Amino acid sequence: MVIYTSIRHDGRHWVVENDNFRVEGLTLEEIDDKVREVVRKTTPETRDQKVQVYMAYDNYAIPQWIRQYSSHYFDRVIEF
Amino acid sequence: MAQYPERKWYTGMLSTEDWWAVWIAVGFFFISLLNIWGIDLVGWMTYPTKWVFNPPEGGKGAISHAFYALGKKYSVSAKGFYKGLGWWSVIWSYVIFGAALTIGAAFMKWNLKRFIGGFTLIYFMTIATWFIGHHAFIAATKVNMHKYGLNFALNLGGGGSFILALIVGLIIGNFFKGFAAYLSEAAKPEWYIKTAIVTLGVKLGYLPIKLSAMSQKLGKEAADLTFDLFVAGAAATVVAYLIFWPGVYVISRKIFKLPRKTAAVLGSGISICGVSAAVATGGAVRAKPVVSIMVSALVVVWAVIELIILPGFFTHIWPGTKDPLVAGASMGMAVKTDGADAAAGELLDEFMRTKIEVETNGAVKWPEGIITASAVMTKVWIDMFIGIWAFVLALVWVYKFERREGERVPASEVWHRFPKFVIGYFFCWFFLLAIYFGPGQAGAPEAMPFLKTVKAGAVPVEKGMRKLFFMLTFMSLGIITDFKKLKEAQFGKMIWVYFVALFCFIIPVAIIIGYLFHHGMTLPNIAQYVK
Fold this sequence. Notes:
The structure holds two protein chains of two kinds.
Chain A: E1 2-9, E2 14-17, E3 22-25, H1 28-42, E4 52-57, H2 64-67, E5 75-79
Parallel strand pairs in A: 1-4
Antiparallel strand pairs in A: 1-2, 2-3, 4-5
Chain B: H1 17-33, E1 46-48, E2 67-69, H2 71-74, H3 79-83, H4 88-107, H5 112-133, H6 136-139, H7 159-175, H8 177-183, H9 189-212, H10 216-255, H11 260-284, H12 289-316, H13 324-334, H14 338-359, H15 370-401, E3 407-408, H16 412-417, H17 421-437, H18 448-480, H19 493-518
Antiparallel strand pairs in B: 1-2
Helix pairs in contact in B: 1-9, 1-17, 1-18, 4-5, 5-7, 5-18, 7-8, 7-18, 9-10, 9-14, 9-17, 9-18, 10-11, 10-15, 10-19, 11-12, 11-15, 12-13, 12-14, 12-19, 13-14, 13-15, 13-19, 14-15, 14-18
């Protein structure tokens, strides 16, 4: 099962969100743990199957003056 | 605005500057090809000529001809119409290019009122500097200044206009910051230069067609030379990556004791390609965005410093006109940001061509744009490899340095980081080469009428549109460059890492690599074919 989310850094925290949840953490490890926990809680059908959480960096969070040079930061996937 | 769906391969096609550079430049390129069927919809593109206040009897330089529509000279089907445009071609170019750019700005969700206002001001300031820069005292050379009634000229060729545009932009950016802030919505040097680079692809594809009108042998020489640049640029880039990045990373870590992620981002920003590499690397190593933003801010300023220093150095100190393509290729590896590099290449092209013409008293004239192409070619290859390099770094970081349970790196990252404007550049280049070798019969005399129709369309795009967008780039680069940024405390050691790495390592090594792969490549002499 694939769950799509966006990720960004607000200057202090990493923030991962979609229509169903929003988590934030100081490190990527912390946010991955929170994502796993909230996905298992809010989506019961994921308890017995492999899950991929696709995190697309919200490129509109990149300052506009930089976007003309590079419009993509990173996407990452965690599996559990 | 957050995006929840999976990022697809086509994501960003209507919302990024990269893709809009392709749509606009390739769009006008396709429109120009209608000339093959006798429909000329690009002859309105404006272009300056040298002028003086009081032209001599029988001489050149009337102000009334200072701007003209390129169709006046090159159109096959509408010469009479475009001849009548004169200075009105400036307005036509403003309206049509302005409309095209505004459509792009709308899709990218910019503030349209600010964009239109800003672009109007930037465009007309650009035209003003283009005009002033073409006064014969600035632009004429020792060889042709007598035609304008002058006994002395600065010998700057078209380079004077570029320098003037940069100076005006820098004055605005550093002393009129409120005005610069207003213009910032339209001061987009990377967008303009990426559009210009796509039209440079039209130039390279058109070059064999142009020279084959002088002689079929010259046309073949031009085709071979552009292919040589393609291959040499690739080889030089691979070597540059393998030497530059580790070198700067080690300087950052061992000498300046920067943290690993900062050293990686700074390493890419200094050694590879400035802002895009810094952002790509920041993403690859999962650095907080503030690291890439700070490095990017530094890169933008240092790139303009390089743009100011290097073209003059390479022209008048070393290697001069003995090895112009070594100079171009070295610059492509040394100057960060596409905007500053292409701008520096264009300046170098003007300086070198003027110098050789003066040195030989007109006996040697080089075709315009090849030296620019040598600077851009290495940069284009560098841009293409950024995605691969960032992917390699991501693999190293995610699977070795900072292993997190369950994380993997999607291979699609290579495509998302690929510089899309390069697709437009190669597309236009190879499309025209296919026309040259195909229906153009490699420049055979019987194909000349057909090639003349291709020329009618290609020249306004590769000359008028390209030069205008280069001018817009110089002006915009100046507007967005604030030298005071170098004084900001937050940069600390990074400024010195940049200075030491760039001037003591990158530039010298770039010169050596440029020499190894481009020494001996010669430019065709077209003096006997041009007035």
